[in-house]
Task: inverse folding
RNA sequence: GGGCGCAUAGCUCAGUCGGUUCAGAGCAUCUGCCUUACAAGCAGAGGGUCGGCGGUUCGAAUCCGUCUGCGCCCACCA
């Protein structure tokens, strides 16, 4: 079968992906081989593929394909995450566009819409991953909210509750007034925000609720919250304010009387040294309020608007209210001054709304004990982070862990399995039936209708942290007595996790905790942290900037292999990736190179009787040695997770060594056949090369491997073995390097002197040059003969190592120019020699430096001397 | 504000224990080639005071100090 002149990725990719699926090449079942397991970082069920996914999943796929070719039973489990906030807000937005408000729907109605949306859009991303070539075991696809996995989540809640690790409490939480839910501290992003510092006068009360003419001044960024003030606080050491002791002041506009209190928390030199204490709307103020038994008055509703408690500006949005109240304060004579002020403000990661500190009742999971163990997993080296620097960040997190707020005021997610009795008591059970039984044990008169289930759902990460366990055996989490099934026993712990450092605590740390809690073992052994994909200007890729290409467009344009290669070329672990389309072009070009090299080889006619030329004999020997050495390097790179180095090593081996050198050396003259020995060796090399590249470029390698010879049905390069390194002769490889240098020198001289490549030259070598490499020199440099000794008459010379080589060029040589060049070279060598000798003349150096280093310097000295001698001879022969 | 990390060629990055001709790679650039696998290519070439300053050492891109410029994590002085 003829190979088309150009590689056509789209045809080839669809064909082989379908072939792999049909032959269940990605499917894994436990057997007696060593397992290699990866669970996908589950993308949001409603997500679509972006460049970050491409990077992550390409890395995963490379690792899993490599392991498969290493003979392991490789299993990559795919799936999606229900992503409660993200998905729910998308559904809410979609309903809003249809004129439906969430608040008009019952929970059941809303969930029906949400599931419809999930069925419609869910898993698009998994289809897209197929285009990338991801070799996931699709038969094992999981969803964090499918029944079995949801049951696991509920069971773990009950488990922790019974262990006394889950509790319910009123806490100051981060309220997102757009998503209408509390979010965890980690989902809050602090951004420096331009605002104002309002200096307000609070007049001292005369004791009967009337203002005197004395006042104090407080500075606040949130004047709209003054109606919720419970006190004014000063530092007890602040003598400026001792006269205020025991006094009461009046809140401006509403004239409510509040006490002046003293607390160390207040910084004397910040603002005016007077702090208004607003327990309901500030976490620190809440703490102060607890210490001083202050009343809590909540004046902001769930949407961020002032409520009746505020007395004024009721119903106004907090930011509108801020503007209005400033005017009112000014008119009332309470505004002293306004300063421009920049301070960090918390924003919701999801909705970008300004977070409102809010008191509410939430469920928490105690973290301290689990965090200790999880820290130890990493500190002890049972889990390795790549790169290592993330251990520091991880340690910080684990040592400063706070209890995890696991409840969310949403509907999309696993509903908290807590039921309240009419008297307020609570029972926590896996099902409503069990809850009723439990409730009746407390109070036999309770009926099913009397029980009310908690309205909240659980944080998405409360299901994600079970992922490496629940994808294999959803029975196990929460039921330590359940014996792990066959899959879980075989595949757990997984081997490698590839993910972004931004979820090191959200996900990585918590999986480690869940692993310890439910399996007594780590969930994975290595965590490879990728960087963020940025554009070439260093900007984060984002929809709004429009600087993020659609991966599917790229795949359509350049092919999946090209996209994969382009992505990996610039990805060292942990560094951000500056992506540019030119990298994908480079990938495409490499595909073209591979393709064309096989076109060349497969086009050769083989002559069974032909004898192998000497040059081919040497070339085969060389490439065989080089291949072994390179495979060793590549294996070392993989072992250290230096995937881009492994790739670059193979890339150069293929392009430079195989195509530019090896093939050019063995290539028969035009119209001539190639001998069978060389041909066999060449196809074997080619096959090994494409096997080496297959984990990175699965499609083109499969296409060519299938093209090389008739394969049996179902056969695939995927299950071929990674080529192994044999012994190699390093000295011979070094000799070949010198030969290459000589060839490059000759070519350089041709270029300089404008001598056509077709015109054969003669070469003189003054010294010992291996005979077996002479044919290589002749063919690659178009040298008709290699003579020993030195050229007669005018010649151009050069030095390789310590060998002097010269080419007699007669009329082509400008003796003055050559002399000048030689003299410059000579001067350099003499300076070099002087430097080396200065070192060797230093008694301290000879005394302190290791012997090998001193010997090295002596070698340098000897080499420099012989080069100087050679240059002087060349100068002499120039006359 | 605290902590961690980074700074090497035009760009993106390697550089292991301080010592081997150590100053490297890929891309980009320049020059010459439509040579019968490939112009998405071939051959050749140029390009860096290793961020600045100081120190340790026989010897520093590498270790220490400091300054400058970036990045990340943490942190609600209202």
Result:
């Amino acid at each position: 079968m003829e190979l088309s002149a150009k590689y056509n990725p789209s045809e080839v990719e669809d064909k082989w992906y379908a072939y792999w699926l049909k032959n269940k090449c990605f499917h894994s079942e436990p057997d007696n081989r060593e397992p290699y397991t990866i669970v996908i970082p589950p993308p949001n069920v409603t997500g679509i593929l972006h460049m970050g996914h491409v990077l992550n999943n390409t890395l995963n796929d490379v690792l899993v394909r490599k392991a498969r070719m290493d003979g392991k039973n490789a299993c990559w489990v795919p799936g999606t995450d229900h992503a409660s906030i993200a998905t729910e807000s998308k559904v809410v937005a979609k309903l809003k566009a249809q004129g439906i408000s969430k608040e008009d729907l019952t929970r059941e109605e809303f969930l029906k819409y949400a599931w419809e949306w999930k069925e419609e859009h869910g898993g698009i991303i998994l289809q897209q991953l197929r285009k990338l070539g991801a070799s996931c075991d699709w038969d094992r696809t999981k969803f964090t909210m499918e029944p079995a996995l949801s049951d696991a989540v509920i069971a773990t809640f009950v488990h922790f509750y019974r262990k006394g690790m889950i509790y319910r409490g009123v806490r100051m939480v981060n309220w997102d007034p757009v998503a209408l839910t509390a979010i965890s501290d980690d989902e809050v992003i602090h951004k420096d925000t331009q605002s104002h510092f309002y200096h307000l006068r609070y007049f001292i009360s005369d004791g009967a609720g009337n203002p005197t003419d004395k006042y104090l001044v407080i500075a606040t960024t949130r004047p709209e919250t003054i109606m919720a003030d419970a006190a004014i606080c000063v530092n007890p050491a602040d003598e400026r304010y001792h006269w205020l002791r025991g006094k009461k002041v009046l809140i401006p506009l509403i004239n409510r009387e509040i006490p002046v209190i003293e607390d160390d928390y207040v910084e004397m030199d910040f603002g005016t040294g007077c702090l208004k204490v607003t327990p309901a709307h500030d976490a620190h103020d809440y703490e102060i309020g607890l210490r001083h038994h202050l009343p809590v008055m909540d004046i902001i509703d769930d949407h961020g608007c002032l409520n009746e408690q505020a007395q004024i500006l009721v119903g106004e949005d907090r930011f509108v209210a801020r503007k209005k109240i400033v005017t009112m304060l000014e008119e009332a004579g309470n505004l002293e001054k306004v300063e421009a002020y920049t301070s960090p403000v918390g924003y919701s990661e999801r909705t970008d709304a300004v977070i409102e500190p809010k008191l509410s009742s939430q469920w928490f999971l105690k973290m301290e004990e689990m965090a200790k163990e999880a820290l130890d997993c990493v500190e002890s080296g049972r889990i390795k982070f790549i790169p290592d620097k993330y251990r520091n960040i991880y340690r910080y997190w684990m040592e400063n862990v706070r209890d995890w707020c696991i409840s969310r005021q949403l509907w999309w997610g696993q509903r908290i399995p807590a039921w309240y009795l009419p008297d307020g008591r609570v029972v926590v059970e896996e099902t409503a039936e069990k809850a009723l039984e439990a409730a009746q044990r407390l109070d036999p008169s309770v009926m099913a209708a009397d029980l009310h289930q908690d309205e909240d759902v659980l944080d998405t990460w409360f299901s994600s942290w079970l992922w490496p366990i629940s994808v294999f055996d959803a029975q196990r989490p929460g039921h330590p007595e359940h014996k792990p099934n066959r899959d879980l026993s075989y595949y757990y712990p997984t081997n490698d996790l590839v993910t972004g450092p931004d979820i090191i605590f959200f996900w990585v740390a918590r999986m480690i905790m869940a692993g310890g809690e439910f399996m007594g073992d780590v969930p994975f052994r290595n965590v490879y942290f990728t960087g963020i994909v940025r554009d070439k200007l260093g900007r984060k890729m984002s929809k709004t900037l429009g600087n993020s290409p659609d991966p599917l467009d790229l795949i359509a344009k350049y092919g999946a292999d090209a996209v994969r290669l382009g992505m990996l070329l610039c990805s060292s672990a942990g560094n951000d990736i500056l992506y540019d389309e030119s990298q994908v072009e480079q990938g495409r070009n490499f595909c073209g190179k591979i393709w064309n090299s096989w076109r060349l080889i497969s086009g050769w006619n083989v002559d069974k009787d032909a004898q192998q030329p000497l040059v081919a004999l040497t070339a085969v020997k060389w490439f065989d040695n080089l291949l072994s050495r390179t495979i060793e390097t590549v294996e070392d790179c993989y072992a250290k997770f230096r995937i881009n180095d492994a790739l670059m090593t193979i890339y150069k081996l293929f392009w430079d060594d195989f195509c530019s050198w090896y093939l050019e050396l063995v290539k028969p003259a035009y119209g001539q056949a190639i001998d069978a020995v060389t041909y066999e060796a060449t196809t074997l090399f080619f096959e090994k090369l494409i096997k080496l590249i297959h984990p990175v470029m699965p499609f083109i390698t499969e296409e060519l491997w299938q093209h090389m010879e008739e394969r049996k049905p179902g056969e695939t390069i995927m299950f071929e073995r990674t080529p192994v390194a044999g012994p190699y002769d390093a000295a011979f490889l070094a000799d070949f390097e010198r030969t290459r240098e000589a060839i490059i020198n000759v070519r350089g001289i041709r270029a300089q002197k404008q001598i056509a490549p077709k015109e054969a030259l003669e070469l003189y070598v003054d010294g010992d040059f291996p005979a077996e490499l002479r044919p290589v020199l002749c063919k690659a440099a178009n040298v008709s003969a290699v003579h020993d000794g030195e050229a007669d008459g005018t010649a151009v010379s050069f030095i390789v190592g310590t060998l002097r080589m010269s080419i007699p060029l007669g009329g082509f040589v400008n003796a003055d120019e050559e002399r000048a060049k030689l003299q410059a070279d000579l001067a350099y060598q003499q300076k070099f020699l002087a430097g080396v000798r200065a070192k060797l003349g230093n008694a301290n150096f000879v005394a302190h430096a290791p012997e090998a280093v001193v010997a090295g310097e002596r070698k340098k000295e000897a080499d420099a001397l012989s080069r100087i001698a050679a240059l002087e001879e060349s100068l002499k022969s120039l006359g």
